[in-house]
Here is the input.
Amino acid sequence: MVDLPNVRRLEAVGFRAWPAASVQYDGSWLIRLNAGHDSKRLNSVNPLDPSDYRDIPVRLEKAARRFADYGRPLTVRQTPLTPPQLVAHMDAEGWNAFSRSLVMSVDLVEREFGDGIDHLPIKDVGRFVDACIGIAKSDPKRKAALAEIINAIKPESGLFLFEDAEMGPTAVALVVQDNDLAGIMQFAVDERVRGRGVGKAMLDVCLRWARLRGAKKAWLQVEADNSSAMALYRGAGFSEVYSYIYRTPGA
Here is the structure.
């Protein structure tokens, strides 16, 4: 049984941790759009109340026009908060379903961190973004959009970067502290150093920093088919809270 109040809270902190440039509401449907970045989380319809299912075709058509204005395909992010009637409508219309992701959390209150050295976050957003793009092998043209998103985050955040003297950046992570919850975003490890404990060390740094600032729980989102990331997170004590998928109209 999914804990819907907990889902609502994690959805809210998730939106604050990864803010969209345009945010509009249609009833309790949250429509997030971003012209500069094609992240699905930033460009999706997010229904937030299972009981809000009036005028589904009309509202989807209105949303489609907004998405078209941004050059984006209409995309619905289907979570446990999505009305069953909307899910049934998308199923009946042959909508595609893809990118199943899990929202996972771990309790930090009783966690033992040992005597490891605290790793301080960096302040240079440009340097962090360059590292993110380099490790992910993303298009360098995305730098401005990614920097804009990070600079728009309102809760306290920490930018963590591991570097090697020869290879350069080897791991990155963004931790967003929102009251007693800490979200781990943009977590990535360079493929050249995977399997050497770098990911585990970076995750420990993130969780230690979050706990020191009062976080009682940490959460993250991960694609379900990312087996190496899933193994890392489960090994660190994370467990699934709920899952979501993205839906787009069929051909």
Notes: DSSP finds seven helices and ten strands in the chain. Residues 198-212 form the longest helix (15 residues).
